[in-house]
Amino acid sequence: MLSSDALRAYLASADDASARPEHDAARTERAGGLDRYRLFAARDPRALLGLEPRRRWSVEQLTALVADRCGATPTPLPPPPGLGEAGWRIDPGRTVAALAAFADVLASAVRRRAPVLLGTGRPHALLGFYGMLASALAGAGCRVLTPREGRGVEVPGAGGKRPFALSSVRGVALVHEIGLPCAPGAPGAPCRSPLPLRVTLADLAARGEGLPELVIGDHGWLCGAGQLGLDAVGPAGVSDPAPFVAEAEGTVGVVIPLHDTVARSHYLPLTRYVLNQARLSQ
């Protein structure tokens, strides 16, 4: 089990590694984030992730906000290619502090035996993180809610609507894209939309299972839940300003500044730290 200081050192070394050339996928994802800042400022639904901001945000205000939440100095505007460059690396201290606050939320949910919904739009990276949380929460007496298997969801995209099917893996809600083969071992498809969350909530209500008292997730699962008035917490990367705006405006609770494009194994020490802090270690 890592101490807070050791976890900060681990995160710093992992962040350095993710900026190396062999991690082009992560760097490309972060570089594309600037487009989302512009889209968010224009209130484009593709970047809002289900959030309805209470005020207007300029690109400059968004970059300043995310830099403040992540403990980094923003790159000049217009920035050089790559939001993942040195000025946009996340301060490990901010991540550790947010993980501790996140653990407090989990501990409170356990004390109340609250029903919990976990969902991800980034299953290739974050499924293990959420899966361990789901197992620990269920073991502590929380009811972990899951969507109806195979329930269809059509998500608007640049090329028109894309058909997805809801599923759950290890107690974590996610989607599969209908009509496309999954890569070997792939747990689900990336999806930023809040529609899977909304369909899941409607299904839960229709089946008489009630609504979650806490939603743990990212992207549309996080922002969409907060916008609907549910307690919502989860991680967010620098390429998406929506969760940080939601936190700043009080729409969601704890947002953990965390790169969400690195290898799944990267998150294991973080998960163990959270479970230990919440006294849920297995």
Describe this structure in words.
This protein has 282 residues and is an alpha/beta fold. It is built from eleven helices and eight strands. The chain has helices at 4-18, 24-31, 33-41, 45-48, 59-70, 92-112, 123-139, 195-206, 219-227, 242-248, 268-277; strands at 116-119, 144-145, 152-157, 160-169, 172-177, 214-217, 231-236, 255-257. The strands form two sheets. A five-stranded parallel sheet has the order 2-1-6-7-8, with helices on both faces. The protein has a three-stranded antiparallel sheet with strand order 3-4-5. α1 (4-18) crosses α6. The model is unreliable at 19-30 and 76-87 (pLDDT under 50).
The helix/strand order is: HHHHHHEHEEEEHEHEHEH
N- to C-terminal distance: 12 Å
What fraction of the residues are assigned to beta strands by DSSP? Answer: 5-15%
Number of helices: 11
Structural class: alpha/beta
Please give the largest β-sheet.
5 strands, parallel
- Average pLDDT level: 87
How much helical structure, as a percent, in the residues? 40-55%
Radius of gyration: 18 Å
Low-confidence stretches at least 5 residues in length (pLDDT < 50)?
19-30, 76-87
Bulk shape: globular
Question: How many strand units?
Answer: 8
**Side-by-side strand order of the widest sheet:** 2-1-6-7-8
Secondary structure blueprint with pairings:
Layout: H1 4-18, H2 24-31, H3 33-41, H4 45-48, H5 59-70, H6 92-112, E1 116-119, H7 123-139, E2 144-145, E3 152-157, E4 160-169, E5 172-177, H8 195-206, E6 214-217, H9 219-227, E7 231-236, H10 242-248, E8 255-257, H11 268-277
Parallel strand pairs: 1-2, 1-6, 6-7, 7-8
Antiparallel strand pairs: 3-4, 4-5
Helix pairs in contact: 1-6, 6-11, 7-11, 8-9
